[in-house]
Automatic annotation (TrEMBL), chain A:
This is ABC transporter permease. Keywords: Cell membrane, Membrane, Transmembrane, Transmembrane helix, Transport. It is a multi-pass membrane protein. InterPro entries: MetI-like (IPR000515), MetI-like_sf (IPR035906). CDD domains: TM_PBP2 (cd06261). PANTHER family: ABC TRANSPORTER PERMEASE PROTEIN HI_0355-RELATED, ALKANE SULFONATE ABC TRANSPORTER-RELATED, MEMBRANE SUBUNIT. The chain crosses the membrane at residues 36-54, 61-79, 91-113, 125-147, 153-172, 193-223, 249-270.
From TrEMBL, chain B:
The keyword ATP-binding applies. This is ABC transporter ATP-binding protein. The lineage of its organism: Bacteria, Pseudomonadati, Pseudomonadota, Alphaproteobacteria, Hyphomicrobiales. PROSITE patterns: ABC_TRANSPORTER_1, ABC_TRANSPORTER_2. Residues 8-239 form the ABC transporter domain. GO terms for molecular function: ATP binding; ATP hydrolysis activity. Belongs to the ABC transporter superfamily. InterPro entries: AAA+_ATPase (IPR003593), ABC_transporter-like_ATP-bd (IPR003439), ABC_transporter-like_CS (IPR017871), ABC_transporter_ATP-bind (IPR050166), P-loop_NTPase (IPR027417).
């Protein structure tokens, strides 16, 4: 018996060190620094080739734009602040729409767990709403909410809410029944079971849709801006393309790319914060 | 008067499951008593309905017929009164080891500080010191089972329902934890009902053993185990141990297979 005990203690001292697993999984491309350099080289080469192509290779700068012009416009629009205003509008619309749509959809989807009857009742309606391409609602939403930012937020909500609802509902329905039974045996009531078992076990699926939904919200905001607006990156791209100002179109598109990239990473960061137990798991899977 | 010694009376309990292929009677006319501070093992062929019986006692499954009385009072089940350690360890993956141990106490709104200290004590006894903040996914099967057992013990329930609690453990760890369990329930004066497929374990730990027949299960026999000690190692070396062991093997028809 003492042998067992000392064995156990030996293990205990070593303790779990999940971080170390990452270093074991080399990718053959050296460390992060080398990889970053490589990626930078690819980007620079792309722009240089583009620029040379326009200058000497017969690529039409009128139809495709030209990196030197794009960077000049980029610099100018940063200096006069216009790019910040437009990016700010689009970001605010997308984030607000994403947050409201995701919260509302998730809350409704999770709470459908409480009543199978209600869930069955609303299911065909939810599926019907989901099968409408939400972007087709844009003209209607702009009629209702006007040409300001509120219509873009509404469109972003429409883009995200149903996805969030369906995911949350399915995740709640699939939550481990045995964990719920265990809580019941401990005397937990339905609310306790909901908050202690159903919600936490649905979180990974719910948060996985954040990453998809932040993209959808951005689509909603930009398409809304295309149709009718005074500000925003969508507005910038749309008006510039009407004027055949391809360099400014690219400024808008690259800014959208940077914005989308940033939002994606913010969501990733939140996921890691909210689901520390998932991180442990995934690092172990890398090592396996 | 004699009701007082009887903590739980189960009378005529029955359960039939309706399946696609027809109805399956799993438990039929099950009757036995659990005494105050009893340690009862339930053994029987696998699939005979042992877990089903626990689910009914725990109030997770409604019986088709029969009654349960807790200290004389008729009850539907012992929901909230028991600590139920299910066959799967059922740790919550998003909770650390310590948080898992404290789950039952959160349901009862007990003092957090006190609960924490108690859980930490158990973790040390069970050789899990240093793992308080680890997530269950990083533990071995045996470690997970120990956490599940701590979670059940720390709740300090009137009756412990343990469904094959040591099945995922190697023999040494098993002996060690059997000892910890017997000590813990003896000091705290708890009642234990233990499902096991291990006749050896049933004899070593129990004051009484309930033998079930095959499905639909009924009580085939109840044997008092009269050993000087129920510590897992001493009892196994008791001169009467092998007599009980053979008796129970006979009851289970093990020699004919
Ligand atoms: N919910 C259920 N529906 C249908 N059949 C079930 C259900 N639960 C258990 N059974 C059946 O009842 C029998 C007894 O199961 P169980 O109580 O788990 O046995 P044991 O724990 O003794 O191995 C098995 O044949 C099993 O298939
Ligand atoms: Mg079982």
């Amino acid at each position: 018996m003492s042998v067992t005990a000392s064995n156990e203690r030996g293990v205990a001292k070593a303790g779990p060190k999940p971080r170390a697993y990452f270093q074991l999984s080399g990718d053959g491309l050296g460390g992060g620094l080398t990889r970053g350099l490589l990626q930078l080289v690819v980007v620079v080469a792309f722009f240089v080739a583009w620029e040379l192509g326009v200058r000497f290779g017969g690529i039409s700068g009128f139809l495709f734009g030209q990196p030197s012009g794009i960077f000049a416009n980029f610099g100018r629009m940063i200096m006069n602040g216009q790019l910040f205003v437009d990016t700010g509008y689009t970001a605010l619309e997308a984030i607000t729409g994403f947050v409201l749509g995701t919260i509302a959809g998730t809350a409704i989807g999770l709470s459908l767990w409480y009543s199978v009857g209600v869930a069955k009742l609303v299911e065909p309606f939810v599926i019907a709403m989901n099968s409408v391409p939400k972007i087709a609602l844009a003209p209607l939403i702009i009629l209702w909410f006007g040409t300001g930012y509120s219509s873009k937020i509404a469109l972003a909500i429409a883009m995200t809410a149903i996805v969030a609802l369906i995911t949350a509902y399915q995740a709640a329905r699939d939550a481990d029944k045995d964990l719920q039974r265990l809580l019941r045996s401990m005397g937990a009531d339905k609310h306790r079971i909901f908050f202690k078992a159903v919600v936490p076990s649905s979180l990974p699926a719910v948060i996985a849709t954040f990453r998809i939904n932040i993209g959808f919200a951005l689509v909603g905001a930009v398409v809304g801006e295309f149709i009718s607006s005074q500000h925003g990156l969508g507005h910038l791209v749309f008006t510039a393309s009407n004027l055949y100002d391809l360099n400014t179109v690219w400024v808008g598109l690259f800014s959208l790319m940077i914005l989308g990239f940033a939002l994606y990473h913010i969501v990733n960061f939140i996921e890691r914060r909210v689901l520390p137990w998932k991180q442990d798991l995934s690092t172990r899977q890398v090592a396996a | 008067m004699s009701d007082k010694a009887r903590q739980l009376q189960i009378t005529g309990l029955a359960k039939t499951f309706a399946t696609k292929t027809g109805s399956v009677p799993v438990v039929r006319d099950l009757t036995f008593d659990i005494h105050e501070q009893d340690f009862v093992s339930i053994i029987g062929p696998s699939g005979c309905g042992k877990t089903t019986i626990f689910n009914m006692i725990a109030g997770l499954l409604d019986a088709d017929a029969g009654t349960m009385r807790y200290r004389g009072e008729p009850v539907d089940g012992l929901r909230g009164r028991i600590g139920y350690m299910m066959q799967k360890d059922l740790l919550f993956p998003w909770r650390t080891v310590l948080q898992n141990c404290l789950l039952g106490l959160e349901m009862r709104n007990v003092d957090r500080r006190e609960a924490r200290e108690k859980a930490l004590d158990y973790l040390e006894t069970f050789g899990l010191k240093g793992f308080e903040n680890a997530y269950p996914s990083t533990l071995s099967g045996g470690q997970r089972q120990r956490v599940a057992l701590i979670r059940t013990l720390v709740m300090d329930p009137d009756i412990l329902l343990l469904d094959e609690p040591f099945s995922a453990l190697d023999y040494q760890t098993r002996l060690h934890l059997e000892g910890v369990l017997v000590d813990a329930v003896e000091t705290a004066g708890k009642t234990v009902i233990l499902i096991t497929h291990d006749v050896d374990e049933a004899v070593a730990l129990s004051k009484r053993v309930v033998v079930l027949s095959g499905r639909p299960s009924k009580v085939k026999a109840i044997h008092d185990i009269d050993l000087a000690s129920h510590s897992p190692i001493e009892s196994r070396s008791d001169p009467n141990f092998s007599r009980y062991f053979h008796l129970l093997c006979n009851e289970l028809d093990i020699q004919t297979q």
